[in-house]
Every structure is written in structure tokens, then in C-alpha cells.
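Researcher: Going back to the complex we discussed earlier. I've cleaned up the inputs and rechecked each line, so this should be the final set. Can you rerun the prediction on the complete assembly and write out the structure?
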Amino acid sequence: MRSDRIPRLVFIWILISQAFLLFPHILRTPQLVLPLYVFCLTWRLMIFKGRWRYPSGLVKAFLVLASLVFIVSLDQRVLSIESMVLLLITAFQLKLIEMQDRRDLLISVYLAYFVIATELIFNQGLLSAIYMVISVLLVSTGLIAAHMGLTRLSFFHPLKVSARLMLFSVPIMLVAFLVFPRIGPLWTLPSPAQSGKTGMSSSLSPGSISNLAESDELAFRVQFAGSPPPMQQLYWRGLVLSAFDGNTWTVADQQRFVDDGRALYGDLTEQTSYDYQMIMEANDRHWMFPLDGITQFDAHARLFDDYSLRHIGKIQQREAWQMRSSPQAKKTVRLSVQQQRFNTALPAGKNPKTHALAQQLWQQSDSAEDYLQQILLYFNQQPFVYTLTPPLLGQHANDDFLFNTRRGFCEHYANAFVILARAQGLPSRIVVGYQGGDVNPYEQHVSVRQLDAHAWAEVWLEGQGWVRFDPTYAVAPERIERGSQDTLREDPRFLAQSPLSAVKLANVAWLKNLQYRIDGLNFLWHSKVLSYQGAQQQNVLAALMGKVSLLRIAILIISVLLVSSLLVFAVYYLQHTKPVLSASEKIYQRFLKKLKQKGLSKESNQGAQDFAVIAMQGFPQYADEIDTISQQYIQLRYAKLSEQRHQRLLEQFRANVKQLKIR
Amino acid sequence: MTAFFQRQFQRWLDKRIPRNNSINLSQRRIFIFPSRQGFYFIGVILLLLIAAINYQNNLIYLLVFFLLSMMNTAILLTYLNLSGLSLQAGKHSTAFAGDYVEFDILLSSKSGRSYQQIHLFWPDNPRQTVDVIDGQQTKVALFCKSEKRGYFRPGRLLLETYYPLGFLRCWSWIDLDFQAVVYPKPLSIAHLPTGVQAGEEGEDKPSLTADDFYGFRAYQAGDSMRHIHWPSVAKAQPMQSKVFASKEEQSRWLDWQQLAGYSTEHRLSILAAWALSLEKEKAQWGLRLPGIEIAPDSGERHKHKVLRELALYGISERAVE
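Model: Rerun complete. Updated structure for the full complex:
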């Protein structure tokens, strides 16, 4: 344990594990991690060759300072998790050039475990799990090599020992994972910034939804308890926008949240309801996107009287919630006079042609519903185009859109529809969220991506409450029936931010299939492993041991401990009951096998000499070969030969046995 | 207080792992506890656990439990790296008081398993590290510093291993039945009296220089019987005759009485120093201690015989028990 030097073989394993550990970190922040790694590795190799020396204290201090300055210049927030991780990784890399003895090695091992863990803060997919397992394996390999005798040690031997150690450790790890109580955070730690993520913004102006169609990033996944509702009903309700300044729609300030979601709906008894689990990706926002008609939801959420659901804190990591929705339920909330006024407000003096059209259509219709149908008919029959690349609009944006350009994405149609409705005093608003999704045929879950973002309209009708109208359906029904992937594939802007997206290749059948498989696996990982806690944990434990009690948990842990310990002992003792064969014995066994295939086998009490005589009689045409082999074997085993002669004879013996072909 | 506990612990150890010529490490003789590095490792695991709780990150939980479970498996593997090991006392050397005595220890195992990096040492003495491959007998030479002349037992030997991860220390205190003879530390504080003849201590005889003794040659017919080197005859070696530069045979005596005025230990030390220098001069010399006389002779064997007498002077066999 003293300051003993690290042997070469140990060092190679340390280098391998370090390279592997750093790989994802290099991908995330290449500008610092990669040059520093190349620098440290070069220095280390030069030390190895004896050309350079270990860095002096001054050089080390300079390196630390330089990295610090670089880290701060990368990210102004010094205490952000990204900066702290970079700091850790810098220390981990610099350790490489100053590592001299076993103590340094152990410090680098402790750092390594933190380096692994920090990667898991950023990513938790299946790949990250594989990264974790391989990393731990490699780090332990280095440790084992460092604590192993170097006599008769092959390069891969430590790896084998390490793999075995890990395999033996799996049962207890699983039990601990299952039974360890999941408690809430003790205090808040800085979370990774979600700045790179695309997501729904809290306002709507032309172009804000179509931007999302450029990304195939996952928004959330949903697993239905039964079969999922049909595609046309998959309206994932997000924000409700009712404040309009002539260009941008925003969320109105005054909403109340309700304690019982069911109070907001009409009679629910006749409605089909769906139970589902939603696994939402982190988006650094409050919005949740339940299926329209949400009635039951997680304790961490609030339902507002505009039927939007918000998470109490920002969603900063992947979360799983249990929900229930009745998509066809009537939203029969009462409208106060104030709300009525608010939901019909339009900025004065804008879009005169739109108002004229509203007047014209209103006169043609005999009821409010009929009027709204007339608007949809108008969209359907005039040459409107559903596109991701609409032209820019002028000062009277909606007039320009309705009568001039006539090319737009869902937000343009929703916007135009609500303006037309409000022009005739109908309380109406825009809802943004997602529509549709990709149903995985293997796991029966729905993956909703950013490209599924959608905007639609809601109008308050006397006696019916808020009713959904989707003007996009009038223009491009295939968008609602088949989903955005099918509809928009040819559009140049579609997936512009995700050029390598697998979604683009979806028309190749087997690729699509493979993608579904992987996605299904990922979904299982997310829903079963990553979100394992709370009620899910209770259920699994109950299924495992009936009643969950401390005593039973203790019994479970102890029995697994016992069984896995027995397993270790069994493997170690059994492994050594079989005799260790020397090289010559192994080759002789091969010779015996060749004869056995021809029907001649050696009795265990027969000597090699006696057997040779019998074999020569049995195969007289090979008598010479059998004799030579037997004599060589006897010499190898019993004669006292010098190391060199033994080796030479062994080679001849091996060659003779190999050449022997008995027909 | 600590002395009391140490005594109690020693007594308990003596009962549990009694002194023996060969000791087999079984489970009641092996202790295991996390090493200092192991405690750091547990600290790392706890920090990661806090991260897992605060980030509610199940993958970090998995990592934490993996490491924890590996620590548990390492307990078994570290234990297996000591259990079933047999230690046997081999040869040992002699030394002068204050020098290191070499003890050979033979390690092997019937289990046929390999044992990695077993560290052996007596407390405050240099450690040796050894691998036992496939349970085959492996010799390790271990050193222990002696204190004073006489019989020397090195005491309990510490045997420890950190394999495979270094986070656990598995050890045993074993008492192999070693008993070495430690010679008095040579002290050159008194001059070697020149030419002291048999039985004539104090008398001033003409001195004879050590150069007079020339060496040995094979016995030839006609050689004086007085010049035959009898110790080699006793060993059934070819008969040899001593050859002297001067015709007359002289032998010198190291006598206890010459050193009146010194303490017993000093006397023995001085005698040891004289013995060494006479041996270097290849002289014929003998030793006289109260009640003991060793006839004049020369050679390595003679030297050790004399030194042994000096070492054990006044010490009975049982004194060390």
C-alpha cells in the first residue's frame, strides 16, 4: 500500500477505462474536454516513454487555473451543474498526468465513479445504462489489476475477474434497487439546463408551432391501460391562449384552479374514459399535456378552469404520471361576464377584410354552430394550402393570410378561425398542444414528438360549453387522420433540425420496424426502470412478497445475500476440483480423442506405455506415429528436461498430434 | 488501560490461533474489515446516494447499489484470498542482536486456488508480498529485527490481503513456531589481546602473529598427527593437515576472565567481536566461559558454535517461554 509504482499493465487498463468514461462527456462538451484529454494523454505517453517528466506544482497550478477560466467563459453561471461537472472532469483528466503511485490511482478511481454518475444526470436512456455498466466494469478492472500479483498474469485476466465480480453482484443490486425506499429530494441541486431542448413556448404567434416541426425530439410517451383511442381523438391539451394583442396569443392571467377535475365536466357516466401513464421528458416548463378531457391526475399537478393542467414546479427531469381522461366529455364550465368579454376581445381597427368576411358568413348562417361550420367550409373550399413554409404576412396579418397568401400551418388556421369567431361575439380561444403521435405496435404506447405540435380552436357555445374546432382538419384532414409524419414528409422544413432523424427513413419498412423495436425497449426502460418509485414500487413489492412489511423485506434481502454468497463459494470451490492439466497433458488428451473417435479408448488405469502398445496393434499403419507421440509424452511428463528442451519437445509433440489423421 | 486490552487480546488470540509449526487458515482465524480506502469508497457511495435521492435518478440508484453490492461480493472474494492457505515454518537464519533475522515461510493451499498479493510481516518490520499460484508451495523469506542475544521468537506474524478491490482488508495473526538464536552484538571496545596461551592468562608470552597459520592442505603420509584438522575428519571429509608458516602450532584463547570489570553483556559482546576478528584472520582459537570450554579450532562452523555459546550464556531453554 506504500507509494508503490503502478505497473504497466495496470496503467493500460486505467487508460482504457478513462477513455471510455470520458467519451460521452467529450460528445457533450468537446471544446474543453477533448483538447485537455489529448494534452493529458500525450503528456502521459511521453512520461511512459521516459521523455517527459511529471508536471511540477507550478505547471499543475497553471493547468487548473487555465481550465477554470475556460469553464467560466463557457458558462457564466459558475454554480451550474454543467460547470461543476466540467470541473470534476478536468480534475479527473489532470490526475492522469500526475498519477504515480497507488494512492493517486485510488483517487482517480473515486473521481471516476463521480464522472460516471454525472453522465447519468444528463442522460438516462438505455445507452447510458450500458455506459454505466461497462464503465464500472473497466474501473474495477483497473483496480483489480492494481491489487493482483503480476506472476503469470495475462492481460485479460483482471477483466475476467472484474466481470465475475460484477455478475456475482447483480442479485443484491437488483434487490436493493427494488426495496430501497424512494424518498423525495433532500434539497435542490442544480439541474442540467434544458436550453438545448425545443418545446412549446407560452405564447403563440405565426411560426411558433411550425418551428417545432423541425425537430423529432421526444415530448412525451403515453401508455394506455387498454388500447389507445383513435388517432383523431389524440388531442394532447397544453396551453390555453385567450389574450390577443393582434399578433400574439398569450395565456390569460386570471384562472382559478379546481380541486376536483370532474366538477368541470358534464355528465361523465356515459363517457369512455382512458387510464394512461404519461412519461414526460424534461422541458423546464410547467405545462403538462394530458389527453383532452382530463379528470384525474397526479398530486403534483393543478387543473385550471380553462382545462389546462400545470405541474407545480418546473419539469426538470423525466417524470411519470398516472392520468385519466374522457376525451368526449363536455366542458360545461360557466362563463362569467368578465370571461365572456375577455374571450371575445379583438384589437380595434385591424383586419377590416376579415370582419367583412365574418359579417358575410354570419348572414348566410342560421345559428352560431352553422356559422362556425361555414368558416370551416370556407377553409375547405377556397384554395388554402397546409404548409410549413408560409410567406411573411403584412400589417393586417389575418387579412393578408385569408385573402392573399392562403398558405399556412395549423397556427395560422387556428388564429384565423378564432378571429372570425370573435368578430361575431362568440367567446373563443386557441389551444396549443400536440395532436396524434406514433403508436408503437410492440409496446402499444404512443410516442409524441415535437413535430406533432399542433394548435386548434375552442368556442364556447350556449348549452354545450367549450367545443373543439380544428380548422386544420378542414384544410388537410390527413394531418389529423394519419399524423404529421405522413403529411409533412415532403416539406423541406420538416425535421430541418434533425437531419439524421430515423423518422425520415420511416418509409423503409424494416427500418421503421427496427425503430419501433428500439423505441419500445426504451419505453419499457423509461416506464419500468427509470420511473420506478412510489405506487409502482408498492405494486412490484406487493407482487413479489404479498404483504409488504419490514420483516418480509429483511427476509428477502437476507435470503438473496445467502444465495448469492453460496453461489460465489460454489463457483470458487467447484472451479478448482477439476485437475489443472499441464500443456502436455492437454495435447495428449487431444491424441486420445482422435483414437476414441475410431473406437479405441484408454482405460483410466492404463499407463501411456501400455496404451501405446494396444493402439499400435489396433492401428498398425500408424504404429510409428503412435509410438513417437507416446514416447514424447512420457518424456515430457517424467523426464527432467531443461526449460528450453522441454519447450522444443512440446512443440514437436504438439505438431505430431496435430498431424495425426487416422482414417 | 490499552496495555490491559492488548494483553487480553493476545490471550484471546493465543487461544484462537495457537502457536504451531504449520497453520491452516480457516474461517475462525481470519478477520475482515473495510480498509481505509474502503471507508473512502463507502463515502463515495453515500455521496452518490445523496445525488440519486436529490435528482430522483433511478440510474444513479442502480450505480449506487451496484457499487454497494460489489463491496459485498468483494468481502467474499477477499476472504477467499486468505482462507485455505497453509503456512509452514521453514528454515531461519541467525543474526547479531539488533540485526534482522531471516525466517523462511512456506505457503501453499490444498484448495489448488490461486492467492493474490498476500502481504506478510511482523509489526514494524519489512513486509513481503507473495502470490501463491494454483496452491503450489511458495517460499517467502521474511525478516524480523532482533533485540537482544539469546533465543528469539519473532512473535505473531501479520498476514493480510486487499485483493481484489483494495477496499477490504482481510488479515490473520499467526504464531509460527520459530525460534532463532541471536548472537550478542559485537562490541569492539576492548583490544584483542595478542597471543594468549592456554591456561596462562596474564603471563607475557612472546606474541605470535596470526600470519603464522597458513591454511590447509590434503593429508600426506608423514604429516604430524598434531596438524591434522580433526573437525573435518569428524565430518567424514578427506583428511586435512594444517599448515603453519612457522613450524610451531599456536592457538589463542578468548577468555571470560580476561574481561574482568565489564558487565556480563559487555563481556559477551566483546568476546563476540574478538571471535569475528579472529575468524577473519583464519586463526586457531578457542573459548572459555565459566563452566564451558570450546577447544581451539577455526572455520565458519566453529565460529557459529562459539557465538551460539555466547548467545545462550546464562539462558536456559525455557527462559523465553
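Model: Worth noting: The first helix of chain B runs from residue 2 to 16.
Researcher: Good, that matches what I expected from the previous run.
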